[in-house]
Amino acid sequence: MTQIDGGKIDALFGSAVEQSSYVGGAAIAANADGVLYESGFGTATADTLFRIASMTKAMTTAAVLHLVDAGKVSLDAEVREYIPAYGELQVLDGFDGDTPILRAPKTQSTVRQLLNHTSGHGYAFLNEKLVKYHEVTGTPSVLAFHRSMLTLPLVNDPGTTWEYGISTDWAGQVVEAVSGQTLGEYLGEHVWGPLGMTSTTFDASGSEDRLIPMQSRMPDGTLQPNGIELPTPPEIHSGGGGSYSTVGDYGRFMRMLLGGGELDGTRILSAESVELMFTPSLGDIALPDVIRSSDPLLCNDVPSAPLPQDWGLGLHLMLADLPGMRHAGTGDWAGLTNCYFWVDRAAGLCGAVLTQALPFFDEKIVMGALAFEGTVYAEVGASAAV
Residue 164 catalytic? Predict the structure, then answer.
């Protein structure tokens, strides 16, 4: 197996902690054969349990595709076929004073649209209309993991716009409706359990000693505890952002994707379903140049790289080489708590950096994650051409 000089990566993150870029985190790099690097740094260890937020989405997508492989779900079926109440959702066009202006959607969302964020759903921290909707209706934040999130209206007609939001939470509800299990039970039986992901869960009750405090970036550049805690147990298993995992567990999930749906002789997904995750699916729908934040305490603006990109199912896709790093066709995404991962099938490499900090897309943390990725590729000699 290719070896990595872990000392270089340890030094990279050690310096980042000294400079207050990070307080605590963990990183992993792996290929289909095994782990190349795995360690915690700062206040975290490799055994730390992280609130991985939207890194949950890829795993929920795998649960949906597991049902597709079993012939129990069709990607092009309307969501209301599995959840009749879904057909009652309306589109939020604006407000008359403090009264929401709602109308029926022009079309109904499909399961596929839930998985590539063209279903019409949004997030309040990225959409001003939903900010006001939460305020005037008293609907709790989606971070409360309360069932009321399923009452939130659409913000676009399905199939017209890419907008990041609670689509994957609804995909998790499809899993529950079809399987008769909670999302956590289904993932536990068909994904987490078979992959040996023994720490991954939607409920951290009893494991609080393995968590590290959430931090926020202060005006002076330091990271300080912010007191944010997620509900345990949650009322709803949020397929879009409610899970906890370790860097090693998530590494096994990524390695399964590298293996075309199989890891260590255990098949989780068909090769065809994994291929769908990495296949561009947006067609004429464009990704935004910048994902604009409407809540600077939770999220910074997220600019797009000036390179061709798309969205598969559950994964953002980079369609060009990043010199010195990932190759065209790489699938990736992130979590609100400044967690980042990539799966590069062309190079046979995957990696992740997990932290517990807000707001999302923190420049110092992102730069550290990119430096980690560049170091990994340099060490294994698999960098995309400069």
Answer: yes
